[in-house]
Write a structure and sequence with these properties.
Distance between the termini: 27 Å
CATH class of the largest domain: Mainly Beta
Strand content: 35-45%
Strand order of the largest sheet: 21-22-23-26-25-24
Structural class: alpha+beta
Radius of gyration: 21 Å
Length: 402
Amino acid sequence: MGSNRLWLLLLCALLTATPAVAQTVQTRGAALAQDAQEYARIYSVPLPEAIRRLSAQHDSVPAIDAIAERYRDRLAGISIQHRPDYRFIVYLTGNAPVSQRWVEAGGMRVPVQFRTGAKASRERVVWALTNHQAAIRAAVQSNPSMGVDPRTGELVVIAGSTAVAKAGGAAALDARLTELTGVPVQVRALDQVDRNLGPQGGGRLDGTDPASGKRYRCTSGFLVTDGARTGITTAAHCLDDLSYFDPQRRATPLSFVGQWGWGYHDVQIHAGPAPARPLFFADTARTIQRPVEGQRSKSSTRAGDFVCHRGESTGYSCAEVTLLDFAPAGELCGGFCLPTWVAVAGPTCKQGDSGGPVFSGTTALGIVKGATFRPDGSCAFYFYMSLDYLPTPWSLLVNIPR
């Protein structure tokens, strides 16, 4: 294998140590159809309906963003409803009613339903979460995870069942934290362990920890550029010295550029020659390469968005966005994390998925940081860093359709 081809495969991410197989570069339509198959399976709808809904999810972003901006002062949250029908729900403060409207997107006429009566705007809840984290941890006497649920307009606090019981139960703790923060709070009892997803568990970016001598692995993500160089992302908590192992198990050391892993960052970049196209593997078997044709910002991400991720331990899977402005439990960000992360429902996440791509169709959203695990080791949800937080001057490398 020539050096240019080797680097191309490396930078396309998520590469395998199994024998090489034929690889297909997906069209935008084929990428949509693959994700729609998962949607159809999960929501028990026909495949054509699933394709229409995911097309509507993508095409509706400008119109829903415009609604969010129009009602910014009253906005408590925006979510997507999948059952019993497909619609957008806009939750507003105050009691002044807003009539239902429709958005033309993806060949569908999707209802936009307005609900009123929220007790606080999203901006106010995010402010409260950001400024009262330490006080909330002290009140709960543990290190809970926290986030904003756009479906209910509440600050969600997820704590262990023992901590909740010691505080008098969820209802009593709801009332106490609501008084403390000045915004509605919902306490959820979940015996959990929040972890960064690596560096271990089956990735194809390998390195040896100089302190322990143990070999660890992570997952690579998207191609990025600083205008002069092309790089590949992974998680900052992975090892600095990583190598790519090709299908013949030949190691190619990567060129470490830098890592950003504090507060709202968990990204590391390795540089290499520019590839022909920005691609990533989007299937478990690593036979399908998907082009990156766009980026979705965190501000345009809604609760209920159906997104997919690809990890070396778990392969390809899709699920709903559950919480925005999420702050994981524990000191996973060089200290406690800021509420900037996005949480996505399980059950698919494992050690080794760290750094992997989160996407919808050919649109890139973020890179996996970590996950919340139940006591039995199952995945409750995972969380990712939005590509909004790529370090300056790095930006996502986007494929220009031919």
